[in-house]
Amino acid sequence: MAHLKWTSDLNTGIEVIDNQHRRIVDYINALYDASLTQNRDEIAKVLEQLVEYTLSHFAFEEEMQAEAGYPFVKAHQKVHQLFVRRVSEFKQRFERGEDIAEPLLSLLRTWLINHIRRDDADYVDLVKKNVLKIEPKPDKKWWKRLFA
Ligand SMILES: [Fe+2]
């Protein structure tokens, strides 16, 4: 296994989203680095950051889709929720002392790349047309995590 590399075909063309996706890739790579050290505290720390950041990104994406009038927000939300559930299960197994780094990293990599290419690609055109209408939400926790 090596680091997951960002390639230009993963760009949606929505800068704010591409930056967030790239940051998630950075967290996945940091998790990989942490897994090599076998240091459970380090793995736990990165895993926590990865989950928190990804949840904020999902909240942002869903809000953005809703504001743009994307008709499949609910379905997209379901896909996010299912993924969050799968990652939480890994997190629980890790907390019980299991070594889950490899299957988790493989899920994160495959899921993210497929999700960007397939599910995210679907909302891009509509959101691009509406991107200027998206209002800042400085009072929301996830907004602060992404932009503060
Ligand atoms: Fe998404």
UniProtKB/TrEMBL annotation:
Q: Does the keyword Metal-binding apply?
A: yes
User: What name is this protein filed under?
Assistant: Bacteriohemerythrin
Q: Which Pfam families match?
A: Hemerythrin
Instruction: Tell me the ranges covered by the Hemerythrin-like domain, including all copies.
Output: 12-125
Job description of the protein: Oxygen-binding protein. May be involved in a storage mechanism or for delivery to oxygen-requiring enzymes. The oxygen-binding site contains two iron atoms.
Q: What is the lineage of its organism?
A: Bacteria, Pseudomonadati, Pseudomonadota, Gammaproteobacteria, Pseudomonadales
**Coiled coil region boundaries:** none
**Residues passing through the membrane, by range:** none
Binding annotation for Fe cation 2 = E61, H76, H80, H115, D120
Q: Which family does it belong to?
A: Belongs to the hemerythrin family.
Species = Thiopseudomonas acetoxidans
This protein's UniProt keywords: Iron, Metal-binding, Oxygen transport, Transport
Positions binding Fe cation 1 in this chain are H21, H57, E61, D120
The entry describes its oligomerization and partners as: Monomer.
Top-rank taxon = Bacteria
